[in-house]
Amino acid sequence: xxxxxxxxxxxxxxxxxxxxxxxxxxxxxxxxxxxxxxxxxxxxxxxxxxxxxxxxxxxxxxxxxxxxxxxxxxxxxxxxxxxxxxxxxxxxxxxxxxxxxxxxxxxxxxxxxxxxxxxxxxxxxxxxxxxxxxxxxxxxxxxxxxxxxxxxxxxxxxxxxxxxxxxxxxxxxxxxxxxxxxxxxxxxxxxxxxxxxxxxxxxxxxxxxxxxxxxxxxxxxxxxxxxxxxxxxxxxxxxxxxxxxxxxxxxxxxxxxxxxxxxxxxxxxxxxxxxxxxxxxxxxxxxxxxxxxxxxxxxxxxxxxxxxxxxxxxxxxxxxxxxxxxxxxxxxxxxxxxxxxxxxxxxxxxx
Amino acid sequence: xxxxxxxxxxxxxxxxxxxxxxxxxxxxxxxxxxxxxxxxxxxxxxxxxxxxxxxxxxxxxxxxxxxxxxxxxxxxxxxxxxxxxxxxxxxxxxxxxxxxxxxxxxxxxxxxxxxxxxxxxxxxxxxxxxxxxxxxxxxxxxxxxxxxxxxxxxxxxxxxxxxxxxxxxxxxxxxxxxxxxxxxxxxxxxxxxxxxxxxxxxxxxxxxxxxxxxxxxxxxxxxxxxxxxxxxxxxxxxxxxxxxxxxxxxxxxxxxxxxxxxxxxxxxxxxxxxxxxxxxxxxxxxxxxxxx
Amino acid sequence: xxxxxxxxxxxxxxxxxxxxxxxxxxxxxxxxxxxxxxxxxxxxxxxxxxxxxxxxxxxxxxxxxxxxxxxxxxxxxxxxxxxxxxxxxxxxxxxxxxxxxxxxxxxxxxxxxxxxxxxxxxxxxxxxxxxxxxxxxxxxxxxxxxxxxxxxxxxxxxxxxxxxxxxxxxxxxxxxxxxxxxxxxxxxxxxxxxxxxxxxxxxxxxxxxxxxxxxxxxxxxxxxxxxxxxxxxxxxxxxxxxxxxxxxxxxxxxxxxxxxxxxxxxxxxxxxxxxxxxxxxxxxxxxxxxxxxxxxxxxxxxxxxxxxxxxxxxxxxxxxxxxxxxxxxxxxxxxxxxxxxxxxxxx
Lengths: 351, 292, 347
What we know:
The complex is a heterotrimer of chains A (351), B (292) and C (347).
Chain A: H1 2-16, E1 30-34, H2 39-55, E2 60-65, H3 68-74, H4 76-79, E3 84-88, E4 101-106, H5 113-118, H6 120-138, E5 146-150, H7 182-201, E6 205-210, E7 212-214, H8 225-234, E8 239-240, E9 248-249, E10 251-253, H9 254-267, E11 273-276, E12 282-283, H10 284-292, E13 301-302, H11 320-326, H12 334-350
Parallel strand pairs in A: 1-2, 1-4, 2-3, 4-5, 5-6, 6-11, 7-10, 8-13
Antiparallel strand pairs in A: 9-12
Chain B: E1 7-12, H1 16-27, E2 31-37, H2 44-51, E3 56-57, H3 61-65, E4 73-76, H4 80-93, E5 96-99, E6 107-108, H5 111-118, E7 123-125, H6 129-144, E8 148-158, H7 164-168, H8 170-185, E9 190-197, E10 205-213, H9 218-235, E11 239-248, E12 251-258, H10 270-291
Parallel strand pairs in B: 1-2, 1-4, 2-3, 4-5, 5-7, 6-7, 8-9
Antiparallel strand pairs in B: 8-10, 10-12, 11-12
Chain C: E1 8-12, H1 13-20, H2 27-40, E2 44-47, H3 67-77, E3 82-87, H4 94-103, E4 108-114, H5 122-130, E5 134-140, H6 147-160, E6 165-168, H7 176-189, E7 194-197, H8 205-214, E8 219-222, H9 236-245, H10 254-267, H11 277-285, H12 292-302, H13 306-315, H14 324-338
């Protein structure tokens, strides 16, 4: 276990190296993180731990989540820090925020694709109502500096195959007459709820639209391409790709994601929307190969295992605005990100 | 001395004002909140009340009716429109009503000035936030100076402390505040002005009272105003005199700042806090009187 | 060159000028000036207290003449030129003030508010429209909000029924690039015509007005000889010249429009504004131009530097209508200067 935690700590230190000046405004501040025990939340806590331990930031965190206690028990190196308050609760019933909260990261949402199928109504309720509730509570704060809403890259609808990457002003079609749209629509609704708060109360909201990610703390049970491939490889393979493998994604490492979000707290312009993700496209075949090369024997990669008609699609962000305003960058190249993720999962499994 | 039996009360309206009032009632040694009633069970106020183990209901005025004989005082923190409907029902139930809306059904009550006169009233109206801040000063000025010709009050509040209902009803706020000044300062000509300021961090409520006086007695005015501020401070701890009375440009001017207690509402919302503090001051006085 | 759009020129002399003479405009001045404004062919003549209907008060100064009398006197002198008033919710109420102005025959109600508070104008704009008169929305102190906020607030006013939107540079704090950015965005995104109201604290009133026209403004405000708050407004006589030279069609009779300067010079002698250390600092601090006179008065009485008062007011981000804070600030500065007896009033 210690080796796994050391790996994450080293990554958190690396991503902050030489860049803490961008976060100086956070010194001594109280941050409230909803949904703070997920993949992003864990990485935010890791970065905060480095900022406090090595850079004297004096951050105070309140981590609000449905499974805050379980998380604190599971990861005692974070759970036992006295400047983090773990608050267990359901975002749909949030009534108040700590009075001295100056920064909010609203990441609480149902993001599990299996839930989209089995309990789509709950997804709509939590992601919409939860956003409404936390914004109302934020409106009672005396000196809120920034509210960062985690939306989703899926709000863009379908990215046209011939468009290499999409910027924040892109809007593709979404079908509201299909239940499979529930997650993307819930995030679009959350975004427009945030726009209402901006218009009614002038709340300093910044919206982030995350794309795809990989790294330690990410559950391999989530049926996304990269987690599927790693899980199947750890299990000895084969990797199964429904279509021909030409579908294109871009994948960002957890430490870069967390820095991006922290920098948004300080440097994001209120009312603006920013993409969060890697601008480097990769097709599924190449992604699978990046993974299988870490295993001997290399697991088999099977393509076309689905019914015909699996079309190719693409989801890659333009990040010029984020790079300019937030100083966001990919500091961990994808091959390294994959290598670290596999190493972490092996260390965790063996501990 | 034995602690008096607590006065059983209910709160109608679960918005920001009602929720802040709830926190104050729960802190009071002489008030007992039997019900927190509104229409929206999923409002943040309802959530908070449930977490504090206060009985809640979404049946509004009907839920109060069902408690016939069990509550003796009801705070109405809904809207003027709703209070006009609630007032006859509450009168029939025989409960004392503290109306925090600008409906002006009952006698205007500003505790620092006329608490004793209001204690037997079935329905008291808490004027407006600007009224609670300015009326006592206007009254003190009138006490010190027989020749008050004109009284004016200006309040500046943080934009964020003015909810949608306040914003759309600015005219009613101004007219009610002017009526309050006219009534208490016994001055035929009055004016109220309200400014919303969006600065961040939010500004705390400030209220200025200005008067035209034939022969102003500044020393006596200062004395009276300072004595009045001390009285108000007893039930509005954040009430402070920031500009003692002075004469400038042919007018007498004095100014206060009101910091809220920060119970549920933020501290800058002194404008919302002061009306709740006044309502609690009245209710507690009723509770004490009932014992004697 | 393509045909330029026709520009609505609003004459605010008898309203903004109220600030310049501590609200002491006489009925005779109203009549004489209204006749000159009519002859010049301005689209609208605005009349009343500097802070608009119902604003005569100890807070911002009492008008010499009741507003009903001023409005009737002006109306009697106007035929082509329409009569307008400024209205600020929080000062003016529908029942007490707008009703009387409707009776006096006011054609246009320019309903204003601090630039971030548009929703307080909903009822007033709605009322004016419901009785069949014209209503515009005015965003005051507009240097204090970003272009996106201004657009959002302007859209609110448009949704309430405003038939024009005017950005006021109430503090005289704009530079031409700010005007281009803000007016440009509003002009391209609103359905109704957009206007600009300049102040000259930094000597940029004409430059800013021209920037507004070039960015798409269809309405422009000015006052004769700049007779207005602080360092004054964009002088109408100069606006007339600029509009003519740049080829913008207007309803003006050019020579008569130039003549208003001479009329104002005689009529308002002794009160005409000009740049001074006070008005410059006011513009730099971004404080409402109308504060100039009360600040000077309070600074003199309490023995402090009026420029310090302005910078402190700017730091506190006061808005128009908060004149009472001037005394508090001056008193506080005086106490700090004295260094003794904290908590006591200044002598």
